[in-house]
Amino acid sequence: MGPMNDKLGSKKTSFVNVTLVVITIAMTVENIVDLRYNYTSFLMCFLWGFMDAAINIHSNAICSF
Questions:
Q1: Which of 1, 3, 31, 39 lies 20 to 30 angstroms, CA to CA, from 24?
Q2: Contact 54, 1 (CB under 8 A)
Q3: pLDDT tens by residue, 28-52
């Protein structure tokens, strides 16, 4: 996310973060509806971690200026 923020800028990277949040919420809803422990559970956990890291990197990049 850091290089993407440097290359695209803060505004466009915000749209990437919003997209990650929407995908994560969609996968979470899918996992809640499905109620089975399968690959969607692992994908949901990965997306939560990836989204959290991406938003934290983006937030720290904005605040450090």
A1: 3
A2: yes
A3: 999 999 989 999 999 999 999 999 9
* Burial readout 37-50 (b: 16 or more C-beta within 10 A, e: otherwise): eeeeeeebeebeee
The helix or strand, by DSSP H or E, that contains position 48, with its residue range, turns out to be helix 39-63
Query: What is the pLDDT at residue 59?
Result: 78
The model's pTM is 0.80
State the Cα–Cα distance between residues 31 and 46, nearest whole angstrom. 13
Distance (Å, whole) CA 36 – CA 22 = 21
Q: CA geometry: angle at 4 spanning 59 and 24, to 5°? A: 65
